[in-house]
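Quick one: co-fold with pyridoxal-5'-phosphate.
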Amino acid sequence: MNDELRELYQQIILDHNRSPRNFGDLPGATHSAEGYNPLCGDHYFVRAHVSEEGIIEKVFFEGSGCAISKASASLMTSAVKGKTLAEAKRIFEEFHGMVTGRREGEEEILGKLTVFSGVREFPVRVKCAALPWHTLVAALERKQEPVTTE
Amino acid sequence: MTSRPAEVMPFDVGRLRRDFPILTRRVRGRPLVYLDNAATTQKPRCVIEAVADFYTRSNANIHRGIHALSEEATARYEETRRLAARFLNASSPKEIVFTKGTTEAINLVAASYARPRLKSGDEILITHLEHHANIVPWQMVCQATGARLRVAPIDDTGAVILEEFEALLSERTAVVALAHQSNALGTVNPVARMCRLVRENSPAVVLVDGAQAVAHRKVDLKEIDCDFYAFSGHKLFGPTGVGVLYGRYEILKMMEPYQGGGDMIRAVTFERTLYKDPPERFEAGTPPVASVIGLGRAFEYLSGLDRMALSEYEDELLEYGTDRLREIDGLRMIGTAKRKSSVISFVIDGVHPHDLGTILDVEGIAVRAGHHCAQPVMERFGVPATVRASLAFYNTRHELDRLVEALDAAKEMF
Ligand SMILES: Cc1ncc(COP(=O)(O)O)c(C=O)c1O
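Sure, here it is.
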């Protein structure tokens, strides 16, 4: 198997694809949004519970898509737990910089999310990795329109 | 059936491959395996050279100059029209309109034939396996005129159910639009038979979307007997930016222009404009002259080949690829119609088509992973997307073996 591919599909990603965490409905969610990638049909709902103090207490996701988008959603739900909206956006910024190759990707900010660094070798897959994040931000900012990656 | 031209060489895929310079390319360090022919086909050297030669030696605008270059350009442009008529077995080159592709050809018929004529109570009939290009323009006509869109269903193999198709035809049907071959499933519609059903059961005109069919078998419009036939040059080994709309002359003659501008008029004053006759009436503005000339070269290239032998070879290849892929555990074929051609669409349990597309790409194998601009088809089969390997006569068994190997490796990883 080719090295770039091994970098892209790291074990953690394959594992989260097979058994995604925080997958399913989140009854009583305070925020939710829908995200869709018309190119490949990836389609997710992201739901969050945010406390009155503005802390993201829980994020769940539902839907279907490729391994990259599903693992990204799954790892995202853990990464933003306990964070504020501003902190979540900061993580996404760093994440986006890493998958597009504009930034190295600070391990301190990203933690486990650095497993997505291989995406930068596959520009057409950046949207897959970013879709759950765009959807989360839309949910937190209470956007009404479904998010698309176009 | 047409007889085989006597002067052509026996079928030899190795020799044919040498006509297509791109096929020797390496992609990501591996020899390219190009299995995305339904999206666009590769170009033989003679087509590439015809385009380059036009710009190098003959470039000029057409129908305008009185100088030698313009005359030369016009003659070569019009030569393609004659070749197109012969390619389709149309009655006359006057029935050939150049467009920028299948999409524009269908939109032209929708705008210039259907829109001015249809009204509330009329119906447009399409099938469930159409490309978005043969759905959306008709929806737009319906929205503008109050006509109603009807859809003939397909069965679990992806074949149109002919009894249902027939039952949907009536005095109300004004337009029938159907694919000659499905791009997502490979199903080949029995278009001659369907055109006959339309004539027997309704007053409708029939448009056949030939985008996927022309590269794979000989098309004979005398046999099909449709009113319009549309295809794109780039899916027929020709350049992008040019397509062909065939229209029965009596019908073209009564249609309004599609766009207004230069080249399509006889005389203009600010009070009134006289339009030219078809086909010029529908070719406003400067067309993609070089692409049209390149397409002409593609017609000539194909007419020098034994097209029956090409179709037989492709069918064998399709059968071989289908059998090999079926050996893969957890693979489900999408589209198993008895009459199908050149397309293998499939999904694999537990591996998303998009991931398969990336894994194949790394192996130098180009396929399409997605909904193939046919979302209703995807919905019918309950999948968000498929992987589609689509063939041309320059593909080989060895390339399909490489596809199978790469899919096996992908399965192992997931
Ligand atoms: C069946 C069918 N119809 C129409 C089209 C549209 O062709 P174009 O994009 O060249 O206009 C395609 C292209 O994919 C097709 O496969």
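If it helps, DSSP finds six helices and four strands in chain A.
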